[in-house]
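Running co-folding for magnesium ion.
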Amino acid sequence: MNLKAVAFDIDGTLYPNWKMYLRSFPFALKNYRLIKAFSRVRKQLRTIDPIHDFQKLQAGLLSEAMDISYDEAYTRIHTILYRDWEKVLARVPLYPGALECIEDIRKRGLKTAVASDFPVERKLGILGIEGLWDYELSTEDTNYLKPHKKPFEAIIQSLGVPAEEILYVGNSYAYDVLGARAVGMKTAHITTKSVPNTMADFTFSHYKQLHTYLFR
Ligand SMILES: [Mg+2]
C-alpha cells in the first residue's frame, strides 16, 4: 500500500458513540427541543449548495425552526450545543488501541489529519489527543458538512498529499466512506455491522485490525 497520510473522523470513530450518548443523556433530556430542531437543521444544511456563510445560515435556520431570534439561536448553538456538549466527552475513553495506532502512524512518517462536522479544537483537548495532527478541520469552516467534497478537498490540499495516497477512517458509511471515496481517497470503515457490497477499501471493528492493515 502506498499511503502517505491517514485522516480520521472523530465522533464514533476515535471513541464509541454509545458511550457519549450514555453520558449525554441528562444533557439531551434537558435540551430535547433544541437538539431535535438542530438535527433537522443539520440535515437541511447538507442539502444546500452553495452556502456562503455557514454559521449565519445555520443560526438563521434554527431561529426559524424554533421561533426564536437569530441572536438567541446563534448563542444556543455556540454555548449549549458546541461548548456544553463537548464537556460531556471529558470522561469518554477512546477506542482501545486508537491512540497507539495514531502514534505509530506518525512514527512511521505518515501525515495525520482529523476532521469533524463539529468544532474540533477544544474537542481534541477534551479527548486528550491534541498535538497529533498535521491538519485539524472543522468541516463547518469550509461552509459544508460531510459528505460534501469541499471538506475532503481541504484535507487533500492542506496535507499536500494526492487523494489516492490518503486513507480516510470513519464510522459513517454515507458521510465518511462515500464522501472520501468521491474525491478519490482510500477508505476504512469502523463498524460492527459491515455493509453488504461495501465501497470501503477496508472494514474493521478494532484498532488492532487497522494497525495490521496499515503496517503488516
Ligand atoms: Mg462520526
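Result summary
The first strand starts at residue 5 and ends at 9.
The CA atoms of residues 82 and 119 lie 7 Å apart.
Job closed.
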